[in-house]
Amino acid sequence: MPRPPQVGGAHYYSTPTLTTTEASQLEQGDAGHEEPETLTIRDQLGIIRDDTSRMEEGGVTMRRLILLLAVAAAAISITACSGSTTPAAPAGGTDVVPDASSSEESPSKVVKAVGEFTPVKPMIDSRQFHASVLLQDGRVMVVGGRRGSGLHFDRGKMDTVEIFDPVSGEWTEGASMRNVRVWQSLLLLEDGRVMVIGGEGVLNFAMRGTEIWDPATDEWTKSANMKVPRDKTAATIMSDGRILVAGGTSDTYGLLDAVEIYDPGANTWTKVSPMAVKRSRHTGTLLQDGRFLVTGGGKEDPPYDDTAEVYDPATDTWSSAGTMSVERADHTATLLADGRVLVVGGRGKLTSAEIWDPDTNSWTSAGDTAEVRSEHTAALLPDGRVLVVGGATDVASSELYDPETGTWSMSEDMDRARYRHTMTALGDGRLLVVGGSSGGSADEGILSEAELYSQ
What we know:
single chain; 455 residues; mainly beta; 4-stranded antiparallel β-sheet; globular
């Protein structure tokens, strides 16, 4: 069940006063601007006591109780702070709220939306460890993954493809890949085609094979093999349209420092300088200046890695990006609007977050999330905040990080707790959350459910 909207000073820039009429209108969702008699604290607390009694008899909804608690909290704050007469804005909206100490001509400040999750039609297949990408026409492609659990050879590994249309809300089947794949990379090429890279294939071995999907024909064709088989890698489309792949797990289950670049025009892979540290389950982030940042990594069990390094394609060199405050694997790294990178969570029940600054090549704390998170997802929102969603094990909550204030706040819960899912940013600012695991036994905990986040 979604969390109730947060109410209080964390969402407002001024201290509100609620009048008798405003309290009534707030309950009805219509805050007015008249100035009748102001309720005393005793009166407002009395209302809450009366409504609490009626709630015990089944006569009052939880929403009404939350709103009335907000009334009392605002009144107490007014008494402590000498009393302001600024009217309150409805909670959870994007209303403009004037500063209490400013005149009517003063600049206004916007209350940022918490957002909400809305379930959409489920996928045709349940899956985890899959990959997704936004197509040029605004639809979302989901490929591969595993519908079963366990380490048993090829149990549940998938070659199937589904495509979600956010306009119609429908899922359709696409042409299946040539091979089953788990923990693969999926990237949109500049010409609109889609490339799937590596992953774990038959007999649980990492693959060197790649394939390219053509939206004009809905067909997959084999493309050049990588020099090194790998899954759980970090990959990106570089500024010049080539593909960089770094690290991963090999076909002998070791960690890799090997790096290679794919040229779509020539259909060739070229080895480049290796990383200083062997990594898998790490992150890779393309920076605004065209360099590539990798952080952390490790196997499924500790120890993990706390180092970071940056690749410069202009010089084919790696350089140190410092050391994080903790070791991390299966964490997230999100490029912020100002060029810094936010790293969150990771294996080992972590709540810590930190930011790397490319200008100073240093790390600073970004506080802690309210819940431990690993195998979660994170995305940059249009307003510059970062939404962090789900995580192991069975986390339904989401949290928002605001780089302007350096603070975390709770957002709404998803309809389903999940981890090992994907989250894809749509062209209209919404986010599509798909599949994953939600605990349970064997196949029962693997999800087909999907939901959209919107502000």
